[in-house]
TrEMBL record:
The keyword Transmembrane applies. GO terms for molecular function: carboxylic acid transmembrane transporter activity. Residues 17-408 form the Major facilitator superfamily (MFS) profile domain. It comes from the Bacteria. It holds the Pfam family MFS_1. GO terms for cellular component: plasma membrane. This is MFS transporter. It is a multi-pass membrane protein. It is found in: Membrane. The chain crosses the membrane at residues 21-47, 53-71, 83-102, 108-130, 142-165, 171-190, 229-249, 264-285, 292-311, 317-340, 352-374, 380-402. Keywords: Membrane, Transmembrane, Transmembrane helix. InterPro entries: MFS, MFS_dom, MFS_trans_sf, Sugar_transporter_CS. PANTHER family: CARBOXYLIC ACID TRANSPORTER PROTEIN HOMOLOG (PTHR23508:SF10).
């Protein structure tokens, strides 16, 4: 079956749901990534230290865990579509508000509150897409939604570069933040065109009396705790490796004498590689299964990373290998959303996905600090390679320890209905 046949076979509502989730995730990625390109300008404008701007980035990332958890609970209680719109409006509002900040403290508060929305959008959108399509198309549909991250990432590079180089420093970073108002338009589209998940509606209707309401403790109940723990560790491993690569590669390129223009082009090439990787991984997951695909892509990612770290660098090698780093280390996330969606029943699906993805992501970000500390004694390239080996090893072990239900979304809910949960 062709890679895009799933889209051709989708009905009108499924296509509208796809584009809503895709755009939401792309613009979430755009708003999240844009901050890293504004750091030099903001630091110069307000004479901030690296510690101060680092705190803004860290706090915003940490609160995504709380945002994903809360949004998941709300989506399991009140519906995916309503909470998807709410999370998009939330991170849009506080992103635009950040552009009006008059001092460091105001910017810190705005970015922290914006982080709550970042965490919620992924889990709700991924669950909505997974429930909107048939089981045979879930891998490709959710995987293609994930590819929106690459588009948002590339967009942030282009927009930030153009505005920072053409506008006065005191205004450039503000205007970049204000471009984040675009996601509000997506909410209008969702409100008019996207229907609630049929699986969610049916599950609520059939189980009003028998199923508990999602809460902060739902994912820790005996029947779900194994999935919660190991899926969180899986995400932690994948995100730790991803952060170690993406955050430190620009510094590594500096050490090896590559020009600023080469770094920008390399990031764009990585984004293109990530987009291709999302497509490939989504298709591969249908052929080999999500579990096998995640394991295989983890191994490939580590091999590519080691080659990238150890080989002698020049402009052309950097660009070529940059494509494959994006293809493997980022593209592999296409299989993650569908995999996580099958680990939890409908009535706590977004709660479980939101907790696992965002808690794992928040703790995984600590790899940035870990690589920096290790690099003082081993060097940056060796440290990244060793850290990625450990992270991908953790991810692989976690995958092997996860008990995966049958590959049919509705069977998960039926399983718990039969047990009287």
């Amino acid at each position: 079956m062709g890679m895009l046949n799933w889209y051709k076979e989708s009905d009108s509502n499924q296509k509208k749901t796809f584009w809503a989730c895709y755009a939401g995730w792309a613009l979430d990625s755009y708003d999240m990534q844009i901050f890293s390109f504004l750091l030099p300008v903001i630091m110069a404008t307000w004479a901030l230290t690296q510690t101060q701007v680092g705190l803004i980035g860290t706090v915003a990332l940490v609160v995504t865990a709380l945002g994903g958890w809360i949004a998941g609970i709300l989506a399991d209680r009140y519906g995916r579509v309503k909470i998807l719109m709410f999370t998009i409006l939330w991170f849009t509002f506080f992103g635009v508000l950040a552009g009006f900040a008059q001092n460091y403290e105001q910017l810190l508060i705005a970015r922290t509150l914006q982080g709550l929305g970042f965490g919620g959008e992924w889990a709700v959108g991924a669950a909505l897409m997974a429930e909107a399509v048939s089981a045979k198309h879930k891998n490709k549909a959710v995987g293609f939604v994930q590819s929106g991250m690459a588009l948002g990432w590339a967009g942030s590079v282009i927009v930030a570069t153009i505005l920072i180089t053409t506008l006065p420093p005191e205004w450039s970073w503000r205007v970049v933040f204000w471009t984040g108002v675009i996601p509000a338009l997506i909410v209008i589209y969702i409100r008019r065109n996207v229907k609630e998940s049929v699986e969610f509606v049916n599950d609520v209707a059939k189980n009003k009396e028998n199923i508990e309401k999602a809460s902060f403790t739902s994912v820790f109940k005996k029947q779900y705790i194994r999935s919660t723990v190991f899926s969180s560790l899986l995400v932690l491993g994948l995100q730790a490796a991803c952060y170690a690569i993406l955050i430190w590669i620009p510094t590594l390129m500096n050490e090896r004498g590559l020009s600023p223009s080469s770094k920008i082009v390399t990031i764009l090439i990585m984004a293109v590689g990530a987009f291709a990787g999302f497509m490939f991984t989504a298709y591969l997951a249908d052929k080999l299964g999500r579990k096998q695909t995640l394991i295989g892509m983890s191994i490939l990612s580590w091999i590519v990373t080691v080659v990238y770290m150890l080989i002698a660098m020049n402009q052309y090698i950097t660009l070529a290998l940059g494509f494959f780093v994006g293809f493997s280390a980022i593209g592999m996330f296409a299989a993650l959303g569908p995999f996580l969606s099958d680990l939890f029943p409908t009535h706590i699906r977004t709660t479980g996905m939101g907790f696992a993805y965002n808690v794992g992501k928040s703790f995984g970000a600590l790899s940035v600090v870990g690589v920096g500390m290790l690099a003082e004694s081993l060097g940056l390239a060796t440290s990244i390679g060793l850290f990625c080996l450990t992270a991908y090893g953790l991810a692989t072990i976690s995958i092997l320890l996860i008990r995966v239900p049958k590959d049919e979304p509705t069977l998960i809910s039926h399983h718990y209905q039969k047990q009287g949960v």
